Amino acid sequence: MKAKAICLLAIVLSLWSCESARNNQELDRIPAYKLEFNKLSSTWDEAIPLGNGTVGALVWENDGKLRLSLDRADLWDLRPMENLDFENHGFDWVKEQWEKDTYKNVQDRYDAPYDQLPAPSKIPGGALEFDVKGLGEVESVKLNLDSAICEVKWKNGAILKTFVHATEPLGWYTFENINEELNPTIIPPAYVSVKQEGANDPVTGQDLRRLNYDGGRVTQKDHIITYDQKGWSNFQFQVHTQWQPTPKGIQGSWSISSQTSDKAPKETAEQVVTKSLQAGMASSMESHIAWWKSFWDQSTIKIPDPVLQHQWYMEMYKLGSAARKGAPPISLQSVWTADNGKLPPWKGDYHHDLNTQLSYWPTYSGNHLDLEQGFIDWLTQYKPTFKKYTKDFYGTNGLNVPGVTTLTGEPMGGWIQYSFGPTVGAWLGQHFYLHWRYTMDRDFLKNEAYPWIKEVANHFNELSVLDEDGKRKLPLSSSPEIHNNSREAWFGNMTNFDLALIKWTYSHAAELALELGLKKEAEQWEAAIKEWPDYAVNEHGLMFSPSLPFNESHRHFSHLMAIHPLGLIDPSNGTKDMEVIEKTIANLDATGSSQWVGYSFSWLGNLKARAFDGEGAAKALKDFATSFVLPNSFHVNGDQSGTGKSNFTYRPFTLEGNFAFAAGLQEMLIQSHTGTVRLFPAIPMDWKNVGFSKLRTEGAFLISAQKQDGKLKWVKIVSEKGGTIRLMNPFSNKEFSMEEDVNSHWDGDVLIIETQPGQEIWLKP
């Protein structure tokens, strides 16, 4: 048995060595980025994050003990939200209360319960703790991004290596060079406690004890610990760990499983861990490292700004840790639920008035559509739930989605101008469109993308009414999160937010119908667009609505959706659109950032990239990376720098700002939303040496390119599905070579190339 343990350890250490050798070989292509500190964090939200979209862990120190905060994406209290009675209190009733100036009735019924009640909510899973006081002082804490492995070293020579497996619902830990017994304990979340009950603030997190759970059961035998916890109704979950001694250390595995009476887990946590230990850590680490190697091979960037480049790699690491096909979508905190005796900020739910959308922005040009697929699949799975909500609340036969939902797509209420917003389904529909455009998957176009967008358009057809000018409008319109939750947050005229989403829906329904040969349907959608009014614009650019100019700082850029992300107002449309864009962004800058949060700066980076303002885009992203993230890279809404970039200085952790940052940097390097690919469209003048590999464009093309000393050295195009690529001339003139014999011609400054599936084309000056 001892010889077997020594052999196992040798294999594991060999894999660590091989991993390091591979990293050195990849340095020219994939920077060996890492998080590195000289001590463990003392708070959960600054911990080292590990995850795989289903389970996650945070590595930190709590009262002298090394703590692994464990989480699983489907740990949810799904008790029904009180007062969501749509039968007699639907959209017509809301409009009636608004008109009668009795809107408090709406707030009491639909908004107050979200603030006052603890559930439905995401819930935490527990923690593993190791008493490491005897190990002395920590020397270093590292997270190697290329392998997603965390390593903690103590000055006495002790080492911890831990990781969450890339594809399996389990984690591993191994301590080396220790001379004392160091066994873990499982710490249940504080569902039951003798302490006085805490506050019920949904932003800072309500007290876990308000869920009224009975205490869980922790059982221990030899080197095995199991924690079983019952939640609301028939929900329960299990945390399990097993470990075994090694020469001068221990090695163990953990897992979390969840189940209801009608949905048992494929395997319990105990079964997962038992099987993993039988296979061994060496085998698990090998497949784990292979997955991450493949992940980092999907796309890379190289820019001369070390702050922005490091932040991009941190965001992509978190994306790889938070999203998977087959796993729930990215919620507000994904698999890193708060470990502080409270529910997570905003209950860790799914906010579809911005948060989920921004979280998936980098998957498209970043060439990670496999990770985006989990979101698409979830939206498709719960489409019947969304259609029922649409019928019950709005009375239409089309499709809309609640703006705030549970794990199973049920509405949760809150500020209903946004949690029940009339155009939420349209913004989510853009993800279906983008999935089609970046994959060119015709089956997906026919069976999922067009049906979704068509049903959203039908919802608008049935919901809209005619105004006194004969134009269509919504009975009530809104613009997240303008006027917060007051009666004035509803508008009697069309906001630019709703109008942009409606126009986008009709225009793209027409585009997709035509692509499918449905000419008559395309003509109907084209005709429908003309029935709606123009955008509200004044001398300062886009307004919130015809009755409200943009004249105050606000965190949500809802009024300029038409510019980004929808691309309806775009420089490619001519000087008139460019004037609107420049005035709108200038007004945004002039109004100031006092009421912004972190994601505002990320979004601004995307906006300025669309306006070809490289310096402005880089500055906005630098402001985000230096002021609105914690040392572990988590986005925390408020300004942490003390430099006054925002009046908000609080620190609730959410992820959308992180992922919008990554998308903004990609927008600086490549754009294809107009149907024409632009390389380096928005980089600062002093970025002389910059490049990227395998960024994806609409049309399913993978592009790599490099600039050196300010001049483009080469471009590589890989055509996945074949077809035509339109490339804005990236060279200083039209004198360059293509190493393939291809059919190409010029349309002004646009090079048009006909490609074959799988074809690789090199362009060089």
UniProtKB/TrEMBL annotation:
<dbReference type="InterPro" id="IPR049053">
    <property type="entry name" value="AFCA-like_C"/>
</dbReference>
<dbReference type="InterPro" id="IPR008928">
    <property type="entry name" value="6-hairpin_glycosidase_sf"/>
</dbReference>
<feature type="domain" description="Alpha fucosidase A-like C-terminal">
    <location>
        <begin position="671"/>
        <end position="760"/>
    </location>
</feature>
<dbReference type="Pfam" id="PF22124">
    <property type="entry name" value="Glyco_hydro_95_cat"/>
</dbReference>
<dbReference type="GO" id="GO:0004560">
    <property type="term" value="F:alpha-L-fucosidase activity"/>
</dbReference>
<dbReference type="Pfam" id="PF14498">
    <property type="entry name" value="Glyco_hyd_65N_2"/>
</dbReference>
<dbReference type="Pfam" id="PF21307">
    <property type="entry name" value="Glyco_hydro_95_C"/>
</dbReference>
<feature type="domain" description="Glycosyl hydrolase family 95 N-terminal">
    <location>
        <begin position="35"/>
        <end position="158"/>
    </location>
</feature>
<protein>
    <submittedName>
        <fullName>Alpha-L-fucosidase 2</fullName>
    </submittedName>
</protein>
<dbReference type="InterPro" id="IPR012341">
    <property type="entry name" value="6hp_glycosidase-like_sf"/>
</dbReference>
<feature type="domain" description="Glycosyl hydrolase family 95 catalytic">
    <location>
        <begin position="316"/>
        <end position="669"/>
    </location>
</feature>
<dbReference type="InterPro" id="IPR027414">
    <property type="entry name" value="GH95_N_dom"/>
</dbReference>
<dbReference type="InterPro" id="IPR054363">
    <property type="entry name" value="GH95_cat"/>
</dbReference>
<dbReference type="GO" id="GO:0005975">
    <property type="term" value="P:carbohydrate metabolic process"/>
</dbReference>
